[in-house]
Amino acid sequence: MIFPGDVIILTYVAGKPVLTVDRGLETPATITRPRAVAAGSTQNRTVILKQQVRATPITSAIPAIPLDAIASLLTMGRIVEQFTLEAAPHILAGRADRLIFGPGDEFYARGNWTSNTSVYGLFREGDVYLDPETKEVLGFEAREVGLAKVMSRDGDLLTFELTSVTEDVRIGDRLLPTEERRVESTFYPTAPDESVVGVIMNVMGGVTQVGRNNVVVINKGTTNGLKVGNVLAIYKSGTVVRDRVAHDRVQLPVERSGLMMLFRIFDKMSYGLVLRTVEPLRVGDQVTNP
Fold first, then answer.
1. How far is CA 175 from CA 87, 95, 101, 253, 289, in A?
2. What is the CATH number of domain 187-288?
C-alpha cells in the first residue's frame, strides 16, 4: 500500500525494472487548494493528509470450516467399482442368532480377506450414478452403515464386534477395509483452478429439496481439476412459464441461488455441503465457478 508523502523509486536490477517505496519523513504531506471566499476572489487553504489504513468489512467472505462441523459427513459412503461389494466379505451370522445388530454386538463374517487391517466398514449397495448429460456411469455408491473391529480369526471366518452404526446392520451386509486417506483438520474454501460446469445429481438423506447443510452429489471430480475445499456456486434452473399475452411458453433464465463446498472428491463425481441458499434448490440445478 502507498500513502501521501511516500516516494516511489524506479530502479533497474539486472536489466529489469524494480519499484520500491520510501516511506519518507514522519511529517504528514500537505496539499494547498483554492477556496472561494467571495464572488470573484480566491484564498488558499491547507489540507493536512495523514497516513492511515482504511478498513472495510468483507461480508461475503466464507470462513474456514473446522473438521468437527462436518465430521459426520466424511464417512457416509464411498464410490466403488461395479463388482467391489459383490466380491467383498459378508456378515454370515450373529452370536445371539440376531438378524439385526447394534453397537457392542458380535457377529461372524466370511469371505476373501485381502487386507490385514483390524477395522472394517460395513456397507450396503447404494445408488448407481449416471451422468445426466452423457449418460456415462460415474460410479457405484457403497453406503456405510457401521464400523466393526476384528476380535479373532479362523481361516476365512472372522469374529467382529460392532463399534458404531449409522443405521441398522443386517446379515448379508458387506465389509471393506477402512480407507487410508488424508483427513483435513480444517477446510479452507477456495475457488477451483479450472472452469467447471456440472449439475446436482442427488441429495443425500432421501430428500428432494436442497437447503443449507444438505449434502449433494455432483457429476464432476478430480478429472475436472476439483479439490477438497473447492467452492462452487449453485444456479437454480429456470422454470417454463406460460406467456398469457403471446400465448406461448418461455424458459426463464438460471439464477444464482446458493453456494456449496466440496468435502469428498472421486474421479468423476464429488460430495458437497451446501453452505447457503436463498431459495430451495433441487436435483438438476447447475453448479459452476463462484
1. 10, 17, 14, 46, 37
2. 2.40.10.410
